[in-house]
């Protein structure tokens, strides 16, 4: 009864959370997980002008399990088109196998 | 000297942490990682009655590296049987390759 | 335009963050993500002498997307050589496919 899925991971700036959640919901995903994150991207700094390391978790990592790769790509394309010209961010996918969930 | 492993991921409500850790320990896993998390599941809300986004990390994400898929399935089955009728949660596995560890 | 990558994951003690970031930078990686973490390793306790669960996130999880497996191995080898005799830690890699990023 397990189900192959794509795990889409989005790491970007915290202030984008609500807008990204809206994109995820509208794509039809059944859920997502948000975690605090810091780090450094290829521009060396976040848009705030300083790197965030240690206890300064000014970024977020969002994970979305999607039933197929197409939904993951669609969400990623929309996020990149809307935000990645102006904000730091990266999206990637990994394979996952869902074991138990409410109604995944 | 690397070792193929299964990474079991459990995202659920924070109040279950101690009971889940007990299940992980009893299954013989050598360790686990716990992270704060928020998000939304397929029931739309957590059992607290409200979604948790932003700085409200009322959930946890637990990762367990197991030497084989069977141990990951056993832990997941036990957690789902004990808690997922009453609490929000999801479990999934990913492939991982352990490079360095104390005694993994 | 997606790109296969290796995701290197390092879970270790928070006090090592700056030194590990230096190793990542010197290896030529374009970025990394840092998250707060707790947990238990195969030594049962962290070097502080007590397990960290619940809200006690005294460890960190660092994720580095590298363009190839060799760079991930090089970073992992360096971290293990410098720190894993004295500190708790584990490193592992997963496959990932980068969808969008600034200049990954």
TrEMBL record, chains A, B, C:
GO biological process terms held by the UniProt record: regulation of nitrogen utilization
SUPFAM superfamilies named in the record: GlnB-like
Gene Ontology MF terms in the entry: enzyme regulator activity
Protein name: Nitrogen regulatory protein P-II
Protein's organism: Chlorogloeopsis fritschii PCC 6912
Taxon lineage: Bacteria, Bacillati, Cyanobacteriota, Cyanophyceae, Nostocales
């Amino acid at each position: 009864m397990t189900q192959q899925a794509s795990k889409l991971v989005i790491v970007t700036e915290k202030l984008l959370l609500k807008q990204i959640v809206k994109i995820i919901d509208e794509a039809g995903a059944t859920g997502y997980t948000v975690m605090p994150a810091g780090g450094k991207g290829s521009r060396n700094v976040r848009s705030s002008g300083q790197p965030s390391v240690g206890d300064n978790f000014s970024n977020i990592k969002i994970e979305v399990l999607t039933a197929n790769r197409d939904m993951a790509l669609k969400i990623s394309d929309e996020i990149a088109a809307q935000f990645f010209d102006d904000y730091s961010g990266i999206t990637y996918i990994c394979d996952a196998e869902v074991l138990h969930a409410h109604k995944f």
